[in-house]
């Protein structure tokens, strides 16, 4: 298989990973910069990836009886201030509306950084009895957080996401909901994104502001850094008490509800780029790719080529495969490079000579393997190839995680492993987490269940309390 670089304009991942990432975002036409720093334009190809994520999650949410709603984007400052821990967590990033352009507003309005307080206020109005529970709501929207440093999809002043907010009669139901949604996110990685997420509970210092427990899905990028790709939170009754969300239970006694919140964002697009991309551009998993197959006619004005490529295009569409027939006047070589850059999983090349021989050439984007397939069997083999590609991409990403997950029993070894990139397990006590963060830049990704690697914390020389999976992260 040839390793020749097809697209010379892209910086190599190994030379400058950050620059490689930004160039792919632009060259593959995923996004463009807007006139306001930190706000991006989602171009059709980038938004198409997000739509496929939405389609999968909406299906899963509806299967679990969740309803989509929409809350206002503006929050009165007095309402936002009700839950103190929550406010403290978002205060540095909140953007506010203070004037209409003519008059100063009587109360500042916060552009939502998240919508917990809006849902809590609404639930306090509409929940009265145990018969009103559970409330299983989700919304698709954008949020604004005034980040100092921005990078397309990964961290922006505005990003798109879904945020689920639910209310339950019992703690057990709410905890079950929190873990159920975590599992749906894990399945999204396995079934759509070809990303093996590491899942688990966050430490106290890393959990969401206002949550009792935060669970996370973590992805490992090509460069060995971790990316928090989604979270699911158990709130208990803290928001319910702050916002007075009560209900009459079956014994006619008044209780506070138990709540959850969970979400993923367009940060997932960044994860897909950085987990799977290569020096030629995007490498998209088939089930999230806007175009799963591209058909390239060789001699596109040849009548027989037109007839055959149109027939295959229509047959694949009937199978609900996202297919594009590029019969433009551009040279085939240009098209090959274009769709390499855009990461289209399968490319079908058909010319007059191929038709004479009753075959077509199919090229797999993820490994650039070329196979010759009989024209009569293309519609039969394409769905199988898409599944095979997904499975191979998932396994490659899983191997990357396994090969870059290590254990350390002393602090110096821990630091050495961090420099290599990837995840490092270390048994510590609670005081050590902040020391490690300050000295190494590594943060606690998840708490690892199971035995301690050591009885004594190698950072503080005190008794260990838990094992943590550490990594440097985006």
Structure described in brief:
This protein is of the alpha+beta class.
Q: Low-confidence stretches at least 5 residues in length (pLDDT < 50)? A: 1-7
Assign the CATH architecture of the largest domain.
2-Layer Sandwich
* Superfamily (CATH H level) name of the largest domain: Bira Bifunctional Protein, Domain 2
What percent of residues adopt helix (DSSP H or I)? 25-40%
Strand-residue fraction?
25-35%
Please count the beta strands (DSSP E, at least 2 residues each).
23
Structural class call reads alpha+beta
Oligomeric status: single chain
- Classified by CATH, the class of the largest domain is Alpha Beta
- Whole-number mean pLDDT: 95
Spatial sequence of strands, sheet with the most strands: 3-7-8-14-11-10-9
Total domains, how many? 3
Q: State the end-to-end CA separation.
A: 33 Å
Distinct helical segment count? 14
- Shape assignment: globular
Give me the CATH fold name of the largest domain: BirA Bifunctional Protein, domain 2
Cα-atom radius of gyration: 25 Å
Biggest sheet statistics = 7 strands, mixed
Describe this structure in words.
With 474 residues, the protein is of the alpha+beta class. It folds into three domains: 212 residues, BirA Bifunctional Protein, domain 2, CATH 3.30.930; 97 residues, Anticodon-binding domain (Rossmann fold), CATH 3.40.50; 67 residues, 2-Layer Sandwich (Translation Initiation Factor IF3), CATH 3.30.110.30. Helix content is 36%, strand content 27%. Strands 3-7-8-14-11-10-9 form a seven-stranded mixed β-sheet, with helices on both faces. A five-stranded mixed β-sheet has the order 16-15-17-18-19, sandwiched between helices. Strands 20-21-23-22 form a four-stranded mixed β-sheet. α2 crosses α6. The radius of gyration is 25 Å and the shape is globular.
């Amino acid at each position: 298989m040839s390793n020749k670089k097809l697209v010379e304009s892209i910086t190599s991942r190994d030379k400058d990973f950050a620059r490689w990432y930004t160039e792919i975002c632009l060259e593959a036409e995923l996004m463009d910069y807007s006139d306001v720093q930190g706000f991006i334009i989602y171009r059709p190809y980038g938004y198409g990836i997000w739509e496929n994520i939405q389609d999968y999650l909406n299906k899963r949410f509806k299967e679990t009886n969740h309803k989509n709603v929409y809350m206002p984007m503006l929050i009165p400052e007095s309402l936002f201030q009700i839950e103190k821990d929550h406010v403290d967590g978002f205060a540095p990033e909140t953007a506010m509306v203070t004037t209409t352009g003519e008059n100063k507003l009587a109360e500042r309005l916060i552009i939502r950084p998240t919508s917990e307080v809006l849902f809590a206020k609404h639930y306090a109005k509409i929940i009265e009895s145990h018969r009103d529970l559970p409330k299983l709501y989700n919304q698709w929207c954008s949020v604004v957080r005034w980040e100092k440093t921005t990078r397309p999809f990964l961290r922006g002043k505005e990003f798109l996401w879904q945020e689920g907010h639910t209310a339950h009669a019992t703690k057990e139901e709410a905890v079950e909901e929190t873990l159920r949604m975590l599992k749906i996110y894990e399945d999204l990685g396995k079934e759509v994104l070809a990303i093996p997420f590491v899942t688990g509970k966050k430490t106290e210092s890393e959990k969401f502001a206002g949550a009792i427990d935060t669970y996370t899905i973590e992805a490992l990028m090509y460069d060995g850094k971790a990316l928090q790709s989604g979270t699911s939170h158990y709130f208990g009754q803290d928001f319910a008490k702050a916002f007075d969300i009560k209900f009459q239970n079956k014994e006619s006694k008044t209780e506070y509800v138990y709540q959850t919140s969970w979400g993923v964002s367009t940060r997932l697009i960044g994860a897909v780029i950085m987990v799977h991309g290569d020096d030629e551009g995007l490498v998209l998993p088939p089930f999230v790719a806007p175009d799963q197959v591209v058909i390239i006619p060789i001699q596109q004005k040849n009548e027989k080529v037109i007839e055959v490529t149109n027939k295959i295009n229509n047959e694949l569409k009937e199978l609900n495969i996202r297919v594009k027939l590029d019969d433009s006047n551009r040279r085939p070589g240009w098209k090959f490079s274009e769709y390499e850059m855009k990461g289209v999983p399968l490319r079908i090349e058909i010319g007059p000579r191929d038709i004479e021989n009753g075959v077509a050439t199919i090229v797999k984007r993820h490994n650039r393997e070329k196979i010759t397939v009989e024209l009569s069997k293309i519609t039969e083999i394409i769905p199988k190839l898409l599944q095979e590609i997904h499975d191979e991409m998932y396994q490659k990403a899983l191997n990357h995680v396994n090969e870059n997950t290590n254990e350390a029993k002393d602090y110096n070894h821990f630091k050495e492993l961090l420099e290599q990139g990837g995840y490092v397990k270390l048994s510590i006590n609670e005081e050590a987490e902040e020391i490690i963060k300050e000295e190494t830049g590594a943060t606690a990704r998840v708490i690892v269940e199971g035995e301690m690697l050591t009885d004594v914390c190698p950072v503080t020389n005190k008794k260990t309390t838990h094992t943590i999976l550490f990594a440097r992260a985006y």
